[in-house]
Amino acid sequence: MQRVQQLRPLLPKGHVSYYKDQILVTKGEGQFLFDQNGKKYLDFFGGIVTVSVGHCHPKVNAALHEQSKKLWHTTSIYHTEPIYEYAQKLTAKFPDPLKVVYLVNSGSEANDLALALARNYTGRFDVISMRNGYHGMTQTVLGATNLGNWKPVYPHGFNIFKSLNADPYRGIFGGDKCRDSPCQVRNRKCACSPGKCEAADKYIEQFDEMLLHDFSHSSGPAAFLIESIQGVGGTVQYPKGYLARAYKSIQSRGGLAIADEVQTGFGRLGSHFWGFESQSAMPDIVTMAKGIGNGFPLGAVVTTKEIADAFNRSLYFNTYGGNPLASAVGKAVLEVIEEEKLQENSANVGDYFLKQLDSLSESAIGDVRGKGLMIGVELIDEQGKPLAAAKTAAIFEDTKNKGLLIGKGGIHGNVLRIKPPMCITKKDVDFAVDVISKSIKQFK
Ligand code: PMP
């Protein structure tokens, strides 16, 4: 604590600090973190959904170590074996025609490049992103990040239009019975007739209206950039069928669908490797980061040959993108997900987790949602309004004191975000559910 207090002034004030009583993290192992006093924490946030296969995984460590003895860096002007091996392994995870990969260093950079690809291919400039979505902090993608009122006054990503947030819990068209999956959570069996969801209908109607009216004469937007499930926004799942229909709407008008899989990708949702697949939607461009490298700086954009070829008329250069170390790590992460069946674990343990959370009787739990190991618990007060930020912060601080690290988010800061490394067990879940329940009881 003392050391954190001493060193804190060296970082800018705006640097996000999660806790009132900060911890100094010194070690990570699997799903656990340790502080300087040796206190052990169950890490159910994984550095914001980044540690996908567990802290310091031996196989990933070994891959990094082995590669570090051979070659660190060349810049993409020379070709290296690791980038090809990785590109082959990564693109094998995608359906046709998504088979060309650009390697970058972060999620913001991936989305930045995705917008450039879309604008170049379509010859259009306007873009749509969804309210409450998060896509990064470079100046361009900041314009597509639509959360809160903290954005800077300097110009950022202009000509980015905002679609309605298709949120079945707080959104204007309701639809909490029509959530994509799993509908059984909180007994919310979908009440709509098969293949038809009223909330999705209304949000799509509005989306189509927007496409018709908001863009200059015949040229519509270049792209719709959207997370497959909103992450920072508080694990918001769209009403059933929304994503696939919105993709089709934009694609039928000559624009591209860009799936931001920075949080939802790599098997986290359990049923599918990618979030868009879990909603039967087919994008033109997919962006990835975080879990792709288990904490190593790595991001990627996967697209079609046609879209990539069109980009060849301009130069694309990235000093570190696809460096041998990152490529070796990325490949090892994919191997671990397969070998340790972590996607299956996300499905099984995630399902168990959602049901355990759902069975809690705390009145402050307004909503339990998510899929696999991407989970949100929305906290409310007696009037059903978002729980006061101070109370949520107290709950959050208390879970940490009890040895459990989780995240928070949502526009009102009242959603507990739970996205652990995918190697967790049901025993870990039992511990976490017990802590969450006790902390809510004590501080709501
Ligand atoms: N997209 C999503 C969905 C994210 O959650 C984030 C990071 N929170 C980003 C993009 C940006 O990633 P990075 O911080 O690596 O730039």
SSE series: HEEEHHHEHEHEHEHEHEEHHHEEHEEEH
* Percent strand: 15-25%
For the sheet with most strands, the description reads: 7 strands, mixed
Radius of gyration: 21 Å
Strand order of the largest sheet: 4-10-9-8-7-5-6
Helical content band = 25-40%
Architecture blueprint of SSEs:
Elements: H1 2-7, E1 25-29, E2 32-35, E3 40-43, H2 46-49, H3 58-70, H4 81-91, E4 100-104, H5 107-122, E5 127-130, H6 139-142, E6 160-163, H7 198-213, E7 223-227, H8 242-252, E8 256-260, H9 275-278, E9 285-288, E10 299-303, H10 305-311, H11 324-339, H12 342-358, E11 365-371, E12 374-379, H13 389-401, E13 404-405, E14 407-409, E15 415-418, H14 426-443
Parallel strand pairs: 3-13, 5-6, 5-7, 7-8, 8-9
Antiparallel strand pairs: 1-2, 2-3, 4-10, 9-10, 11-12, 12-15, 14-15
The structure holds 4'-deoxy-4'-aminopyridoxal-5'-phosphate (PMP).
GO cellular component, one term: mitochondrion
Subunit structure: Homotetramer.
Cofactor: pyridoxal 5'-phosphate
Structural write-up:
There is one protein chain. This protein is α/β, with parallel strands linked by helices and 444 residues long. The protein has two domains: 2-53 and 342-443, Aspartate Aminotransferase, domain 1 (Alpha-Beta Complex); 60-339, 3-Layer(aba) Sandwich (Aspartate Aminotransferase, domain 2). Helix content is 35%, strand content 15%. The chain contains 14 helices and 15 strands. The protein has helices at residues 2-7, 46-49, 58-70, 81-91, 107-122, 139-142, 198-213, 242-252, 275-278, 305-311, 324-339, 342-358, 389-401, 426-443, and strands at 25-29, 32-35, 40-43, 100-104, 127-130, 160-163, 223-227, 256-260, 285-288, 299-303, 365-371, 374-379, 404-405, 407-409, 415-418. The strands form three sheets. It has a seven-stranded mixed sheet with strand order 4-10-9-8-7-5-6, sandwiched between helices. It has a four-stranded mixed sheet with strand order 1-2-3-13. A hairpin with a 2-residue loop joins strand 1 and strand 2 (32-35). Helix 4 (81-91) packs parallel to helix 11 (324-339), helix 5 packs across helix 10 (305-311) and helix 12 runs parallel beside helix 14 (426-443). The longest helix is centred in the C-terminal third of the chain and has 18 residues, at 426-443. The radius of gyration is 21 Å and the shape is globular. 4'-deoxy-4'-aminopyridoxal-5'-phosphate (PMP) is lined by residues 48, 106-108, 111, 134-136, 227, 231-232, 260, 262-263, 289. Residues 48, 106-108, 111, 134-136, 227, 231-232, 260, 262-263, 289 line the site of 4'-deoxy-4'-aminopyridoxal-5'-phosphate (PMP).
